[in-house]
Amino acid sequence: MEFVTGVKEKTAMELPVFMEQEEGTTVTVEGAIHSIRNMGEIAFVILRKRDGLLQTVWEEGKTNLDISQLKEAACICVEGTVKNEERAPHGKEIRLEKIEILSQPAQPLPLAIDKWKLNTSLETKLNMRSVSLRNIKERARFKIQEAICRGFREYLYEQGFTEIHTPKIGAKGAEGGSNVFKLNYFHTPAVLAQSPQFYKQMMVGVFDRVFETGPVFRAEKHNTRRHLNEYTSLDFEMGYIDSFLDICEMETGFLQYTMKLLETKYEKELKILGITLPKVDKIPYVRFDEAKELVAEKYNRKIRNPFDLEPEEEELIGRYFKEEYDSDFVFVTHYPSKKRPMYAMDDPADERYTLSFDLLFRGLEITTGGQRIHDYNKLIEKIEKRGMSTEGMDQYLDTFKYGMPPHGGLGIGLERLTMQLLGEENVREACLFPRDMTRLEP
Q1: Between residues 254 and 173, which one has the greater pLDDT?
Q2: Half-sphere exposure of 74 (CA within 13 A, CB side)
Q3: Whole-model pTM?
Q4: Tens digit of each residue's pLDDT (9 = 90 or more) over 325-353
Q5: What is the rounded average pLDDT for all residues in the chain?
Q6: Are 34 and 113 in contact (CB under 8 A)?
Q7: Residue 322, SS3?
Q8: pLDDT of residue 99
Q9: Measured between alpha carbons, how far is 311 from 164 in angstroms, rounded to an integer?
Q10: 3-state SS of the chain: helix, strand, coil percent to 5?
Q11: What pLDDT was estimated at residue 64?
């Protein structure tokens, strides 16, 4: 009887192991042909690996295959000798002795992925996403995004949070309003989840601290550089808080952890993309109404909407705090109750405002959060005051009947945070397979 006992050891090396090999060592490596530079008697065959590029050298008469048999995008296994070469990626190359073709492309590549920058439109890149992301610079963006998710998880685990996974099909939207995708669920009306809000609040009564990373859906008819109809939300909710500032502190800690992670574990991608990490040792916070007045005065801009921030105002607030405090981030607190969901706790000092906040990063909102109402009677009172129906919220409301601690939380837009960190102009650049008003493929 034979058994499977764990990860199989392979003779083919990955880049970290290859980098440890001394000159003259015989090695075996697998990879995809990223580019071929044929110089006649020799050719440079660049392999694309998960950790980066590796230079191999084909020499006429020294390998089992002719260079004409190799094509870009073919997957191959090569054997050869390590040679130090300072001009090669990582300062080493392989002088080829044997080549095995694992697979051949059926057609030539539609994009010049070996170029440093893809000189094509965003729409073309998205239409050919699985090919365009083979470009080293394009795929580096999503290693940065990986670091953000990794930092979120690792930091919250350290802080005693439990990871949860909540349904994305429900009876009612958590945020209210009409921006929900409706569907027929076995002849019962249902919606796609706008957020995991109700579920993560319910789980605070179980685990005290919970988090989730997952998709959320917004049926907003936007066609802007900052909106997606499906995006990934990094959510957490925590109990036994003293104020909404506890939530701000936790997010600041996450950002500090993640920037350190990027600096130490993703140095290569930061260099490829030319990213300068923002300072996050401390983040200023300012009241909503005060922020509007500050930018109105400094930039001579009339306040047009007293209940919300316009995109231009967000940009100016970001600019103000960069100029005055050299901060790329700012918490804008105490948003008007009129513009916040029914579960947001009103400020006891002035019920026109809530104990909530947005975090702006370089002038763009990337986070919404705050303290929630934890008292059942006050929650019912606010729902009734707004003339809302409790249909579909029975289980959520029952949670509060049986006692809940003071709590709050937030949701971070992963793609927006990535976009701002990368310095991109369009959020679609920071989404593997974007969903907007016109795009359902690939």
Answers
A1: 254
A2: 18
A3: 0.93
A4: 999 999 999 999 999 999 999 999 999 99
A5: 94
A6: yes
A7: helix
A8: 96
A9: 33
A10: 30, 30, 40
A11: 93
Summarize pLDDT for 219-245 with one digit per residue, the tens.
988 888 888 999 999 999 999 999 999
Cβ neighbours around 30 below 10 Å, total: 17
CA 325 to centroid of chain Cα atoms: 27
Q: Which residues are CB-contacts of 124 (< 8 A; sequence separation ≥ 6)?
A: 111, 132
Token pair for residue 278?
């923002």
Burial of 395 (0-12, 13-18, 19+ CB in 10 A): exposed
Spatial distance between the Cα atoms of 38 and 92, rounded to a whole number of angstroms: 19
> Tokens representing 249?
């502190």
Amino acid at 23: E
Give yes or no for a cis peptide into 442 (omega within 30° of 0).
yes
